[in-house]
């Protein structure tokens, strides 16, 4: 480490290094296989650094390397440090996850050899996909994804927009298939509100050279609900609610919320579903002259019981109501200097991850966040003379309707050569 006083210049900092190497060949053993791309990464951990994970990476795409001769790779690493190597290789359109490989880098200029060989067989799944109901399905982006394990493999393909037909070129193994439908609602009170449905997984076991037909043609059911706010901030710009399949893993529901009336609507395949994923709301802020002065979000985990939905059935889901409070931080730069991009994060009964404010003067700024009642730890930052600078951490307790202002939060002036 280097200690630097204000106004001091530290000369002759030598950043040169003679690296060690880890290298090898990616192959399948068969000329009928094609290695199309790879992305490999070796990571070491240096806890003294501000960003302690240090990566060395290598990648290539658009390849046509035969599987029998394979494709060589090489990574430069720091001598003597402990590393973990992993990554992805695409073979015949299937993404293979490279298993973790832990190693200690050799001395400067020395080479450690690690080859990766993948056993590849061939099988096929095909069929049709469709989604009914009062929704406008984005047929150009309906897709089917397949995942297998040991080693982890995945592949995704889009269905034909005109016919709904799809084909997946897989390997002989047990695969888990999910169909995905993005759509826009057309029903009253939800016109233009987007959502999506990912079906619970379908398990298939394939033998070498086997072809199997699996159709995903869904007559859906529905779960409806509303979101409303009371207190200091009752209007939001948008947001979404999500749910997961409860009987068979892998399914997920998502619906945007209509900010005009608070309505949302899940489109489901028949079966059991439950809330239990993140809920998001987004807020915009304006001054007395209606000038935009910032935005914030809140994230909250929403649990629930199980909702069983049949074809064509509409089930009443959760009506979510939250009291709200606002917290405004006022920033200024002690000793002069220019301030920009005031921001904060809040952690408590909800989490506010992305809160952006505005500059009111070159040396002053503000950021506002909407929260539900409870106690929060708030961390504040802004850029001062080009450097991201902490403006402190605060503990705040708010009740429904509170409008808290924390004024005069001063940040230091940084002078570094």
From TrEMBL:
Protein name in the entry: Uncharacterized protein
Lineage, opening ranks: unclassified sequences, metagenomes, ecological metagenomes
């Amino acid at each position: 480490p280097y200690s630097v006083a204000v106004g001091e210049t530290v000369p002759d900092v030598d950043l040169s290094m003679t690296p060690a190497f880890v290298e090898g060949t990616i192959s399948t053993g068969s000329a009928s296989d094609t290695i199309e791309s790879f992305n490999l990464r070796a990571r070491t951990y240096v806890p003294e650094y501000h960003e302690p994970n240090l990566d060395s990476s290598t990648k290539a795409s658009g390849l046509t390397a035969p599987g029998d001769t394979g494709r060589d790779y090489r990574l430069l690493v720091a001598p003597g440090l402990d590393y973990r190597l992993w990554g992805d290789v695409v073979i015949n359109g299937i993404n293979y996850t490279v298993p973790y490989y832990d190693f200690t880098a050799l001395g400067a200029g020395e080479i450690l050899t690690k080859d990766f060989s993948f056993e590849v067989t061939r099988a096929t799944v095909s069929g049709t996909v469709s989604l009914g109901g009062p929704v406008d399905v984005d047929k150009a982006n309906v897709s089917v994804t397949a995942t297998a394990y040991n080693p982890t493999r995945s592949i995704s393909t889009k269905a034909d927009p005109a016919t709904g037909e799809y084909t997946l070129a897989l390997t002989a193994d047990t695969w888990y298939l999910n169909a995905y439908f993005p759509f826009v609602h057309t029903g009253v009170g939800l016109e233009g509100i987007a959502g999506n449905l990912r079906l619970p997984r379908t398990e298939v076991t394939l033998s070498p050279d086997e072809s199997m037909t699996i159709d995903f043609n869904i007559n859906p059911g529905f779960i409806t609900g509303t979101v409303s706010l009371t207190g200091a901030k009752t209007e939001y710009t948008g947001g979404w609610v999500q749910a997961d399949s409860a009987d068979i893993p892998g399914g997920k529901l998502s619906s945007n919320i209509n900010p005009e009336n608070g309505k949302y609507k899940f489109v489901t395949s028949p079966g059991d579903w439950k809330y239990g994923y993140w809920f998001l709301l987004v807020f915009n802020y304006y001054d007395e002259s209606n000038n935009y002065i910032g935005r914030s979000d809140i994230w909250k985990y929403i649990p629930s019981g199980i909702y069983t939905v049949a074809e064509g059935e509409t089930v009443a889901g959760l009506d979510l109501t939250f009291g709200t409070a606002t917290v405004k931080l006022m920033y200024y730069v002690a000793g002069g200097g220019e301030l920009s991009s005031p921001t904060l994060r809040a952690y408590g009964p909800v989490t506010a991850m992305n809160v952006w404010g505005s500059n009111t003067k070159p040396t002053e700024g503000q950021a506002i966040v909407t929260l539900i009642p409870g106690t929060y730890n708030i961390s504040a930052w802004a850029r001062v003379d080009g450097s991201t600078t902490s403006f402190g951490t605060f503990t705040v307790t708010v009740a429904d309707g509170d409008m808290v202002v924390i004024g005069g939060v001063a940040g230091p002036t940084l002078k570094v050569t």
